[in-house]
What does this fold into?
Amino acid sequence: MKKGESRGKILVVDNSSTNQLLLVRILQSKGYIVDGVDNGASAIKMAKADPPNLILLDIAMPGMDGYETCAHLKADKKTKNIPIIFISALDDLDAKVKAFQAGGVDYIIKPVGLEEVEARVGIHLTNQILNSKFKEMNNELAKRIEELTLSKSLFQERENKLQAFVNALPNLSFVYDEEGRYLEVLSSQPELLRASYEELKNHKIIDLMPDDVSREMMDVIQKTIETGDTQVMEYKLNVMDGTEHWFEGRCALMEKDSEGHGKVVFIATEISDRVQLFQEVQRMATFDSLTGCLNRRHFLTLANQELKRSLRYQRPLSILMIDIDHFKLINDSHGHAIGDKILCSLVEVCRFNLRSADIISRHGGEEFVVLLPETHKEMAYIVAERLRIAVEKMVVMEFEQKISITISVGISNLNLDTGQEDSVETLIHRADQAMYDAKGSRNTVRGR
It folds into this structure.
């Protein structure tokens, strides 16, 4: 960047004047043009009037919060492509998932750090500027191809500009013909290539890529040539050193003749970190972070699917509700670390004594719920007794002291004969009531 030249325009949205001023000063000191507002309505108005390159958006604001503000911006054609980084003191999973679902590209926890803000803003602004330049260049290229009076010198100039631009893009750049043949291979990171330049040049994708990846790439290339629209795909690939990487491929039309033959530019960006982050968010949204079994939300999703199948085919289904007896006393006597160890050990014992088709979930605290597909009332009692006895025999060590626990188990069954329409919620409620009946005696099984 030349001296005095702006690195980009950023809009900071934070109802705290202290936080807003801090972010504005941090970013201005790094060469960005920065505006600040303290509410969502002002942010939307300013973004529409003079769109910034990036928005830093607080979540907790009076009136219109950050999620709603983001939704308005993403719904507007003029502002939908502006990357939005949420900045919030909320550090729970639901807030992060909701932020990504609203259209955010990143999430920074308050209090913010100078280096973290600068790094994340820099990454997303770079991607935004490169994508914008790529779109502008592609539009210019398409327009020039359509000009029948284009001279050979101008055509060569266009080719040279495209070549220079492709060379400047991150990771990998390729030029393919309609048969998927490598015409050009350009990369500042050759270690991310599938094979060497010599092995790729003038060979076809179908001969060098795995079948699933080559099929999808050829579909993307042919659709780009057919429609002229830029296509995007994500794919996983082993590179030359054998390591596995995720890539985002963007395919744009380069040229097309009157007979439909054409060439495309294919830009592949390595996105393994982004994919891993998404997978981790998905994992956290699915599993209980302590015990590793399903969390309540995902259990309800799977249980509703299984209930529909049981009702459709008139197949039995049962639910167990499990509660650890006197768990508060264990926590008070031995500490929460031992309590957590007991919860994890309980899940391990239950999994060992359940089928692979059975589903166990942490319902809350020391309560667990188990879905038993294809299981009638009598068999559910057998399974519950097996779990009760196995847990009774379980031992958790605290230094040299052995700690044993018992469980109370409640059972409910799908009513196929009575015609009563059960829901997952009613089955869980009946099992919960039966579990409370069992807790009257402790270390026992009851059904309803």
Q: What stands out?
A: The chain has a mean pLDDT of 87.
